[in-house]
Amino acid sequence: MNTLRYARNKDAVGLIKLIDTCFREYPNCILDVDNEMTELKNIYSYFKKKNGYFWVIEKNKKIIGSMGVAPLKRNLELHKVYITKKERRKGLARKLVLKAEKFAKKNNFEKIILWSDTRFKEAHSMYLNFNYKKLSKTRRLHDISKTTEFYFEKKLN
Predict the structure, then answer these.
(1) Which residues have a Cβ under 8 Å from the Cβ of 94 and sit 6 or more positions away?
(2) Which of 53, 68, 129, 153 is the most exposed, having the fewest neighbouring CB atoms within 10 Å of its CB?
(3) Residue 157 pLDDT grade (very low, low, confident, very high; cuts 50, 70, 90)
(4) Nearest alpha-carbon partner for 100 in 132, 54, 69, 71
(5) What domains can you pick out in the chain, each with its CATH number?
(6) Burial profile 77-88: b = 16 or more Cβ within 10 angstroms, e = fewer
(7) Judging by DSSP bridges, how do beta strands 111-117 and 148-155 pair with one another?
(8) How many Å is the Cα radius of gyration of the chain?
(9) In this model, does residue 50 exceed pLDDT 80?
(10) Quick one: 33 exposed, middle or buried, by C-beta within 10 A (0-12, 13-18, 19+)?
(11) Is the pTM above the cut of 0.85?
């Protein structure tokens, strides 16, 4: 059985393992926790400082999914939506994204926004299926993986 719960700082090892495993599915996609994603070491504290929240999905005491949200002006930004490959296509990402959308509507955000690595084509399909619009703007992170990201948004009524 899967358990959706708020993340804790002590989830660092499991969260890092989840994201590292997801990154390894793509060529030249490298997780550098010490220099580029230090927030993974203290995920609860990091999102609390941003007035946001971070959730994990556990199965048999292993983290199999994650998602964070943080306000950005009148928008709610999605962060780190990851599901282990074995657990994909079971509705877990949908559950997370719907949770974010419900939170956004309840708190009167105008839209949900997110950035996604151009290599994450499966995720892009998912967001498009959830009625997110992929706009033309991109950004380069100048990181070890030479990441370029696409911008997605969904306006809330």
Answers:
(1) 126, 130
(2) 129
(3) confident
(4) 69
(5) 2-155 (3.40.630.30)
(6) bbbbbbbbeebb
(7) antiparallel
(8) 15
(9) yes
(10) middle
(11) yes
